[in-house]
Structure formats: structure tokens, C-alpha cells
Amino acid sequence: MRREPPQRLADYGPLFFPAGMLIVFFVVPFATMIAVSVFQREQGGFYTPAFVFDNYARFLSLFFGKVLGFSLFLAIAVAAACVVIGIPFTYLLSRSPRKIQIVWLVALLSILSLSEVMIGFAWSTLFSRTAGITNLFVWLGLMTQAQALTPSFGAVMTAMTYQAFPYTVLVLYPALVRLDPTLTEAARTLGASPVKAFFTVVVPALRNTILATLIMVFIFALGSYLLPQLLGRPQHWTLSVLITDQAIYQSNMPFAAAMAVFLVLVSLALVGLALYAGQQRQAK
Amino acid sequence: MARVQHKYLLPSGEKVPEGRMKGWRHTSHLTNQAELTCGDRMSGLNLNHVTKQFGNFTAVNDVSLSVPDGTFVCLLGPSGCGKTTLMRMIAGLDLPTGGSIELGGSDITAVPTHKRDLGMVFQSLALFPHLTVGENIAYSLRIRGTPKDAQKKRVDELLAMIHLPGFADRSVAKLSGGQRQRVAIARALAISPKLFLLDEPLSALDAKLREAMQVELRQLQQRLGITTIVVTHDQREAMTMADTVVVMNGGEIRQAAAPVDIYRRPADSFVADFIGQTNLLPVAADSAGRASVLGEVVEGISLPAGAAKGMLSVRPEDVQLTAPGHGAIAGTVTFIRDLGGAIETFVEAGGTQVIAVSSPRNRPDVSVGQSVGIRLDPATSVVLAR
Fold this sequence. Notes:
heterodimer; A: MetI-like fold; 2 strands; 1% strand; globular; B: alpha+beta; Rossmann fold; CATH 2.40.50.140; six-stranded mixed β-sheet; 20 strands; elongated
């Protein structure tokens, strides 16, 4: 393979196609969205080009602040839940026989083939009073009467964690497989119990991977708008739900665009903060 | 000589076949069961009929070994001989499927690794990448809740010991191979363990550094007086460092003795061949009961009673080349290799290749194709079972 940097314009050839795709399908729509966010909405119509900050001003209210806060909280909670469950799970998976690993990985990958709608309806059935898992608990004698577990915050959390979990495992898996198994053995010979060795060696050695996983799941969860509607109460609706509502049902494109831009900025700021914190600890 | 500790060390006792013990002429006490019990059996490390099976495969088969306090033992053998599995069982990283392990008089067979208070250096070194040199060394102290200032004091002490003072705050990624090696050793010794285990510790180092580290490791062990077990496949390494070399093959101990005894008095042809270079010559009893090697009767060599055939192990430096005839084994020089420091003469005699090594001072006056006589010294020849 050639190692020297590209010299002539033709050397950059292979980059043209992906660059073009990025511009057409990402940069242009995003620029359009930013532009629309400062346009003037026309009542009963669509919008007219303008340069006003009305949409952003309307957004600065307690109601939308609360929704934004809840959206961020939900995304962080889902990311944390995924990582907390995902690290021990993937660690044990990476230490199990190859056949078992393949079965689990195929099962997890098959979750990715399910759409958000299917996951949402599946969980709403599982959490329902008539056909849900509580009937199983009643049958087992753990509960006296079947009850509905949805709509609730727990139902939203469960479904979103379920949806993001395969991604978590897929990001953690290569790092955990590459982790030298003698590191934990060394920790054990030095006096650490298996659990202590896990927390003092495996987790810190994977800090960067864990941070990357948290950020990925956070962003993934932030965009979720279907599951909170299907499984949550209105107070569990995320900003994404409101954006969809404004854009599609209220035909208020400029306001939806403004909220979307704001959401992107806030999440970028949070990711930047997480990366900065990670670097600070590393430099220490 | 202070090398007498091998007295306490036993190969797997009664399992050694009769014929194999023939080579132990000067170490016959090793078969004496009484010695086993009157030895320093309470302290030190004792392996009693330890066996490890992985499914149908027996990695370690009925190994018994007694290591007195303060001894340096090398487990030596080809890859797959069970030496690493044996060490992992001593460390508690693998559990034996049979037998027991005692340390300092108490049975530790079922004690989990982290409660055994041992220090171990892994082949990969296994330094924690997220910790500094000092934090790596202090890990075992931190786990045990040692106060911060005591930790720091011990780290400084150990860094001085391994000749890396002031390295506490460095990242382990920025160390050289030899430095990483030393840090791994210091980390294992931080709690002053009862037992110091090293699994192929020097295999990643280049030849020169390895030799230097062997000497350093031996000196360190003698200074600290710590019971040490090293797994290695390098016989030079074993000879340099060990009080006792335990030669293993096929999951069993073939011989456990002082390095010189292993070299001079190999217990069987495997040990003779594995340790250094040797000529293994067929020896048979003639009609009069005299031992005959390659068609010539060699005075002073006798086969064990009842045995008609055996193997004679003669080190190349003990093979004497003389003029043919006069009772010497007849042979023809086929190749001469002058290595500068030593001259190897390859002689074909009775269909077997015999190698003779001589120093440049005693350069044999022979050339390729010449007929020569070979003389063997009974004192330096060992008769082994076939």
C-alpha cells in the first residue's frame, strides 16, 4: 500500500464520492434546516424566507425547557443503563466459548433488524394488563392481579435500553476481546478478588471505550421519538416528539427547525464536555 | 557447596521406573521415602500427587514436589510439557483435578488466588496500562488498604531495588523492555510474598539483556531469600538461576536435582538429551556380561542387573579421540566444525554419529575421512534405561 500523502488532485479522487454524498445528504439538508429555523411562519400557510429569531424566542419558555431537560435526562439514563448492563455482559461474553459468543452476537444483531415501531408495539403488548408479563407473575404467584405497566417512565426506559443495547455490545465487544486476559489474572495474584479486579483493572483500562459508548448511546437515545409516545405519558415525551409534532401535525417548520438546531447544539456541547473531561483525566 | 537443597526435592516418587533410577548413582537418597518426611516438610511449598486434566487430556500427571523455603526452582521442559499449568495451579489460576498443594504447612488447594499472598510475573508482564509505574507497583498495597504514605515509601524502596529510582510517575507505555520487566518484578514483590512465581519472565527480552537479567534475578532472590519458582524452556536460564532444576515432559517430572547433577547424572535419555548436548549410544551386554558400546567392550561400564540393553549418555566434551585400535571404538571423521571457542568433530561409528568437543588448546589432529578411535571415560558416562 502507498504510504506518502496524496500529491495531485487526482490522488484525492477516491474521496470525491463520499464527500459528494455527505454534502448532498447531510450538509445541504442541515443548512436548509438552519435557514428554515430563522424563516417567518405563515399562519395557515407554510413559511416565507426571512431572518427572524421569533422561533428561538418562543422556544425559551419553561415548558420547552422542561421537555429539553427531560430529553437529555432520558438519553443520559438510557446511555448509563446500557453501559452498566453492557460492560459485565460483554466481559462475560468475551470470556465464554466461541460458539456461545456467536449465538449471542447473532441474537443481538437480529434486534437491529427490528424497527422502532415493532419494538414499541412488542413492549406495549408485553407491558399490557391483558396479555403482558404480569399475567406470568400472577401465574407464578408473585402478584395477585395482572396490571398494566405502560404507560410509564419505566416502560420507556426499558424499551429504549433494549433498542440501544446491541449497539452498546457491538462497540464494547472488540475492546473487551482485545483486553489481555492476564491483566485480571495479574490483579488476582496481587490480591484483588474477581469483582475488585473487574472494577480496578477492566473498567479503568477501557475508560476511553466506555466514554465513546456512552456518547454513542446518548446521541442515539436523544433522537428517539416513537417509543416515548407509544409507552410513555405526555410528560415522558422528548423534544424529538415535539419536533415531530410541530413539523408534521402543526405544519410549523421554522419552529421545528429551531428546536432541532437547538437540540443539536446542546448535544454537541455535552459531547464536547464529556470528551474534554476524558482528556483531562487522561492527562492527569 | 550450598547446592544441597536438592535433597528435599523429589520426582514423583514411586512412579519412576526401576531402570530410570540407574542414572542417579550419587543421588540415590532421592528414592528414599524417609528423607521425604524428615525433610523440611512443614514450611515451603509441597505438591502432593497434583493432577490436572482438561477433558481427556492430562496436562499434569500425578506430580509430587517439595520446595523448601528460600529455594530457587526452575520448571524446565519443552512447550506443552505441563510446566505452565503446574505453575498456574500453584498460583490458583487453575484448579487441580486431583492431589493437593500445601504452602507453609497449610493446604491451599481450594484457596482462591487473591488470598494466597503470592507474587507472580506473567509472560506478557501484564502491567496495567492505565496506571503509572508507581501505581502499578503499589496496586497490591492499595487493594489491601495500606496507607498512602506507606505505599509511597514501599514503592520508592522497590524502585531503588530494581535500579529505577524516580520512575514512579512515568507511564508504563514509555518504558523499555528491560524496564517493564523490572517493574513487573517489583510489583509482584511489593507485599513481600511467601512465594514468587515467574512464568517465562525473560522470553520477550533480547539475548544479551536476558543473560544479564538472569544473573540479576538470581542475586535478587538470594538477597531476599524468597521461595521462587520460574517456568522456562531455556535450559541455560535454568542452569544459571536455579538451586533445583525440575525437568518435565508429558505432564510428569522426569528429574528434579541440582543443575550440575541434572547435567552430569541425567535420570533418563529425555533429560540427557534435553539438557545440553549429548551422545546417546546403544550399550548391550555381551555373552560374558561385559558392556559393549558400538562393538567394543568398554571397561568400567556395567549395565543394571538383568538388563541386556541400555543407552549410554556421554557428553561431547567427555569423548576422547585417539589413534584407532587398542580397544578404542573405531570410527571415521565425517565433519569438523570449528566454532572458534570450541571444535566439534563428528565421527561416524557403527552407524551412529558421535560428536566430540575439544577446546582450541587440545585441537584434535584429525581431518575429514580419517579413521580414528573413540575412548569413553566410565566416570563421565551414564547408563540409562532404553
